[in-house]
Amino acid sequence: MKVRYFQDTDTLYIEFRERDIFETRDLDDATLLDLDADGYVCAMTLEHASQRTDVSRLMVEGIAA
With pLDDT > 90 as the criterion, what percentage of the chain qualifies? Predict the structure, then answer.
């Protein structure tokens, strides 16, 4: 899983699995969901992230080995 914040565009990108993207769905005007060919969620993009989340703080819990 990768989390990236692009300050220049105020975009938060969360990659759940590294797969080829088959389809991108707009959940609303500022949220995109990337799906693979099997319909599994691969990534999510949040635009205007600093207004919608606390991008200044990232906490990771429950990391599996």
Answer: 75
DSSP assignment of 19-62:
----EEEEEETTEEEEE-TTS-EEEEEEESHHHHS-TT------
- Direct distance between the N- and C-terminal alpha carbons of the chain, in angstroms, rounded to an integer: 13
Instruction: Give the pLDDT confidence of 9-39 residue by residue, as tens digits.
Output: 999 999 999 999 999 999 999 999 999 999 9
Q: Where are the domains of the chain?
A: 2-52
Residues in the chain: 65
How far is the C-alpha of 43 from the C-alpha of 65, rounded, in Å? Answer: 21
Structure tokens at 47: 């635009």
